[in-house]
Amino acid sequence: GRPERPERLPLDELLPQVDALTLHCPLNDHTRHMISSAQLALLKPGALVVNTARGGLIDEQALADALRSGHLGGAATDVLSVEPPVNGNPLLASDIPRLIITPHSAWGAVESRQRIVGQLSENAQAFFAGQPRRVVS
Asked: With 85 labelled, which of 1, 77, 109, 130 sits at a CA distance of 20 to 30 A?
């Protein structure tokens, strides 16, 4: 396990102190809805929330409600709890102010795309040479 670090505050003690909350953690049973209406209420009025980690970390209905109420200064996300997005997702409502939703494209750096194209080319050449590469069995 990870050693305890006394300088780390529990989440509910940290939230009232931050101007911007950004999430960078995996989605699992411990982190699902780790940011719910109770945690959003602990944030300073006008705080910003950014989720570029995983959909499901934030209770989407609670986030929509916090934005509508004016408590949050804004929110941005490139992940939703269900992807591709489905009708009925609370964050897709047209009346939510100060919300930005973008595609989850952090992996899309030029170098990443170039590597994918290079691997595709290598795979095709190897296949036609009768020596398939990167075979999933």
From this structure: 109
How many domains does the chain fold into? 2
Four-residue CA torsion sign, 110, 112, 118, 120 = negative
Q: Which residues are catalytic?
A: 54, 83, 104
The overall average pLDDT reported for the chain is 91
80 vs 103: CA distance, rounded Å: 10
Clarify whether residues 111 and 87 are in a common domain: no
Share of residues in the chain with pLDDT > 70 (%): 93
Residue with the larger pLDDT of the pair 10 and 110: 10
70 shares its domain with 131: no
Q: Are residues 78 and 45 in the same domain?
A: yes
Q: How many C-beta neighbours within 10 Å does residue 7 have? A: 4
Q: Count the alpha carbons within 13 Å of 50 in the hemisphere toward its beta carbon.
A: 9
Backbone angles phi, psi at 100, to 5 degrees: -120, 125
Please tell me whether residue 126 adopts helix, strand or coil conformation: helix
Average pLDDT over residues 113-118: 86
